Amino acid sequence: MQELFADFPEFPPAARVLVDGFNDMVLDYAIPDGMEGVGRGSRVEVPLRARGTTGTVLALVQPDSEWASRLRPLKRLVSDEPVVSPALMDLAEWAARYYAVPVEQMIRCIVPEPVRQERHEEKTRKVVVLQNWPDDETLNKINRRAPRQASILRYLHASENKREPLSDLGGTASLNPCRALEKAGYVRIEEEQVHRDPAGSEDFAPTQPLSLNEEQAAALEKINEAFDAGETRPLLLQGVTGSGKTEVYLQAAQRVMAQGKGVLILVPEISLTPQTMARFKGRFAETPGSVAILHSAMSDGERFDEWHAIHRGKARIAIGPRSAVFAPVQNLGLIIVDEEHDSSYKQENSPRYHGRDLAVLRAKLEGATIVLGSATPSLESLHNVQQGKYSMLRMDKRADGQRLPLTRVLDMRTEAKDKRNLGILSERLRMAIDDRLNKGEQVILLLNRRGFARALQCPECGYTANCEHCALPMTYHATENRLVCHICGFRQMVPPRCPDCHTPSIALEGYGTQKVEAVLRRCFPQARLQRVDADVTTRKNALRDILADFRAHRTDILLGTQMISKGLDFPGVTLVGVLNADLGLNVPDPRAAERTFQLLTQVAGRAGRGDLDGEVIIQTYNPQAAAIQFARRHDTDGFSENELELRQQMNFPPFCHMAVITARSEQEEVAALAMDTLHKRLLAALPPQVQISDPLPAPLAKAYGQFRYQCTLKAPTSRIIADICSREITGMNCGEGVVISLDIDAYSFM
Ligand code: ADP
Ligand code: ZN
Question: Which of 188, 254, 708, 713 has the CB geometry, 3.0–4.6 Å to 698, for a possible disulfide?
Answer without folding.
Answer: 708
